[in-house]
Specification:
The protein is of the alpha+beta class and 231 residues long. It is 24% helix and 26% strand. It has three domains: 3-53, Structural Genomics Hypothetical 15.5 Kd Protein In mrcA-pckA Intergenic Region, Chain A (Roll), CATH 3.10.290; 61-120 and 201-227, Alpha-Beta Plaits (2-Layer Sandwich), CATH 3.30.70.580; 125-199, Alpha-Beta Plaits. The chain has seven helices and 14 strands.
Length: 231
């Protein structure tokens, strides 16, 4: 098994993030600095930042309502997500929300889920409720739906629906850095409040900021089905 896949399946991070950790020299294979493309066998020892990495047999999936001010990071001790969600298993957030954004995050130690969710080609929906600083127009919503040029590339078509004079729902199938805020800024609007309310089929209006819960068996089955994964 390639070392980036080994780290992902151990619940450490996505394969892409694993490649970054390997490049930085934070991953050792049998005491030596690991290289991209290294393969891991049953008798090999892998360490990440000095800690031994072992495959986790028990997979865990949970939904967390990140409050504003909490950082989406895999580090501890920095008022991050992992300081708020305390479980025996080592779990990691799937994707990110910026510090000023609240809402739902999926956390897991299942590298398959992390890898599928972070690959944009699969087109997984994420829904946001957005409040802006002035009245929403039909032209504004239509521009969001059709796509906006960011970093010389147009955003993919989105679903945009007005829910108030200055509030709207926006559903994306991609996840660029600060995408919702930047799309609005490009059209002359400033986001004053932003919350993610749905990831794929996962939503929970009763989950208050700072709270988390395990996915139900039904939610897990639906997640595997949407990601085309076996249980």
């Amino acid at each position: 098994m390639r070392i980036n896949k080994y780290l992902a399946e151990a619940g450490c991070c996505s394969r892409r993030d694993a490649d970054g950790l390997i490049r930085k020299g934070r991953v050792l294979l049998n005491g030596k600095r690991a290289q991209l493309g290294d393969r891991v066998g049953n008798k090999d020892r892998v360490t990440l930042s000095g800690k031994t990495v072992k495959p986790q047999s028990k997979k865990i999936y949970l939904l967390y309502h990140k409050p504003v001010g909490v950082i989406t990071t895999t580090e501890k001790g920095v008022h991050g997500v992992l300081d708020q969600v305390r479980v025996p298993e080592r779990v990691y957030p799937v994707g990110r929300l910026d510090v000023a954004t609240s809402g739902l995050l999926l956390l897991t130690n299942d590298g398959r889920v992390v890898n599928r969710m972070l690959k944009g080609k699969y087109g997984h929906e994420k829904e946001y409720e957005v409040t802006v600083d002035k009245t929403i127009t039909v032209a504004f919503l239509e521009s969001l739906r059709c796509g906006i040029v960011l970093d010389d590339h147009s955003t993919l078509p989105a679903q945009a629906r007005k829910i108030g004079d200055r509030e709207f729902s926006l559903t994306l199938i991609e996840g660029r850095n600060r995408q919702v805020r930047r799309m609005c800024e490009t059209l002359g609007y400033r986001v004053t409040k932003l919350a993610r309310v749905r990831i794929l089929h996962l939503h929970d209006r009763g989950l208050r900021p700072g709270m988390w819960r395990l996915l139900t068996e039904q939610e897990q089955r639906a997640l595997f089905k949407e990601l085309h994964l076996s249980a």
